Amino acid sequence: MRRSFKGLAVTYLSLVVLIPFAALVTKAFAGGPAAFFGAVTQRESMDALGLTLLCALVGSAVNAVAGLATAWVLVRDRFVGQGLLNAVIDLPFALPTVVAGVTLYTLYGPSSPFHVNVTGTWIGVTVAIMFVTLPFTVRAVQPVLESLTFNAEAAASTLGASSAHVFRTVTLPVLAPALLTGTGLAFARAIGEYGSVVFISNNLPYRSQVASSYIYSLTTSGQTRSAGAVSVALLVIALVVLTACGAVSRRLTHGRR
Amino acid sequence: MRRPSRLLRFVVLAYVTALVGLPLGFVFQRVLARGLGSLWAALGDPQMDAAILLTVKVALIAVPLNVVFGVGASLWIARHPSRATRALDAVIDVPLAVSPIIIGLILELAYAQGGWFGSTIARLGWRVMFSLPGIVLASVFVSLPLVSRQVIPLLREIGDHQEQTAATLGAGPVRIFFTITLRAITWALAYGVSLTMARVIGEYGAVLIVSGNIALVTQTLTLNIGGNFENFNAYQGFVGASLLASASIAVLVVLSVARHRERRRHGHLTA
Questions:
Q1: What CA–CA distance (Å, rounded) separates B133 from A54?
Q2: N or C: which terminal CB in chain A sees fewer CB atoms within 10 Å?
Q3: Which comes out higher in pLDDT, residue A149 or A226?
Q4: How many CA atoms lie within 13 Å of B94's alpha carbon, on the beta-carbon side?
Q5: Cβ contacts of A93 on chain B, cutoff 8 Å
């Protein structure tokens, strides 16, 4: 029975993930390496990739700080409504991206009740990315902060260190690996984001089109080889960022011991 | 230990409210602004109702598939470590780092006409792309690791002492699973299933590509919302969005209960 389950699990994974992935890589390089690089370095593609990376970087950096602060308040503060705040943090995981997309467009678009119109700008894209990546850092840092005992912090402050100094030299180094992992995951999620971004971005080529939108337009216009090439480029970026974050995070953990 | 200053609490609450609370409230405000009569009429929209039905159908197929796969793979990975399970453990998380649009594209490259299996599927008389199987495939792909990511750490943490004791006492594998393992992982599983459900009913990009987005036939609720919005039918779009937002709130309640129960017994759940 166990053997047959293993066979089923591997088949399931192959049919859903592995074989389609192989099809993607084959397609991306079907015209040879020159065609691959040609497709990736085309101006429309480079503009889309550049905008995507910029917005993902800004969005995940903002949420690294905001996420740390949120985790801090959730763990070390006590106030009415804290449980609600803790639950609401997961909303971006639970709320469909298209709902976020149309809502953000209506809130911060041409008919905004606050008269703020950020459609078609990198700011609009970044706001959408901030929305979808909010939980990553919070949920990465929160458990570490909870398991932290206060002895070291208390010792440092008894010895006369200011609270900013204690935070920088005692607390932050302990949180850094989790903070980095969470931010890396947020970044990886951000560069592939579609549903929440596509409405507010207005999808203007060379200006406000993100990479996933560009891949979508290539796919629907039948240019699957170029779509495959840009996809592989985007996946490589995600992989490099995640691997680098993992390596630095491990080194930080290791250096502490 | 000093508590954080009130200023920090205020800044965090303002940030989360502006970023998350405001959009959520806005969806319901938009829907209720025209009164219950319009809402009732909008709820009867045949295209939206067909889309809801399709989304429910997809969820009823995709979620059980991924729960069975997720629990099985978790048991295999946590209880029988080997080179194969380490590879599986790495591959299983991949869908989370891949853009939904890329997921749609790679399924098209594998299963559409002109794709790797396109001619085989056509010869067998099946349809995958632009029909239910394609939508299920995309939904399964995007939500693949959500169960195992919750269950594997817990299985590792609780160890297999109880399972081994039961086996020594003569219990079969099925009985051990239902009386011991399943009971230990109940809340982690509930957490994973809720996330899977939310992801499946909320998927947009991948389904947009594989379904072809044909109204009344292959249009899921998320596609219907996007379509209504693009066609300047924003109110109808918001009515659909409010249904999905209500479902997300229900999911959040389950997540929050599960997190509470689990924390009382074990460590943490990661989202």
A1: 37
A2: C
A3: A226
A4: 19
A5: 195, 198, 271
Q: Which pLDDT belongs to residue B271?
A: 46
For chain A, how big is the Rg over CA atoms in Å?
22
Note whether B23 contacts A88, CB cutoff 8 Å.
Answer: no
CB B191 within 8 A of CB B262: yes
Amino acid at A151: N
In B, minimum Cα distance to A79 occurs at B9
Q: Which domains does chain B have, with CATH numbers?
A: 1-33 (no CATH), 45-265 (1.10.3720.10)
Alpha-carbon gap, residue B247 to B258, rounded angstroms: 17
- What would the 3-class secondary structure string for chain A be? CHHHHHHHHHHHHHHHHHHHHHHHHHHHCCCHHHHHHHHHHCHHHHHHHHHHHHHHHHHHHHHHHHHHHHHHHHHHCCCCCHHHHHHHCCHHHHCCHHHHHHHHHHHHCCCCCCCCCCCCCHHHHHHHHHHHHHHHHHHHHHHHHHHCCCHHHHHHHHCCCCHHHHHHHHHHHHHHHHHHHHHHHHHHHHHCCCCCCHHHHCCCCCCCCCHHHHHHHHHHCCCHHHHHHHHHHHHHHHHHHHHHHHHHHHHHHHHHC
Dihedral (C-alpha) B68, B70, B72, B73: value to the nearest 10 degrees? 150
Residues A41-94 pLDDT 10s: 999 999 999 999 999 999 999 999 999 999 999 998 899 989 999 999 999 999
Query: What is residue B266's predicted lDDT score, i.e. its pLDDT?
Result: 60
Comparing CB atoms, the residue among B91, B209, B271 nearest residue A219 is B209
Please report residues of B whose CB lies closer than 8 A to that of A191: 99
Residue B96 has pLDDT above 70, yes or no: yes
Question: Distance between CA atoms of B226 and B228, rounded to whole angstroms?
Answer: 6
CA B66 from centre of chain: 9
Q: DSSP label at B94? A: G
Q: What is the pLDDT of residues A156-196, one digit of tens each?
A: 888 888 888 888 888 888 899 999 999 999 999 999 999 99
What sign does the dihedral B37-B26-A82-B152 (CA atoms) show? positive
Mean pLDDT rounded to a whole number for chain B: 90
Contacts of A64 (CB under 8 A, 6+ apart): A137, A179, A182, A183, A186
- Whether residues B244 and A96 touch (CB distance < 8 A) is answered with yes
Which residues in chain A touch residue B12, judged by CB atoms under 8 angstroms apart? 66, 69-70, 72-73, 85
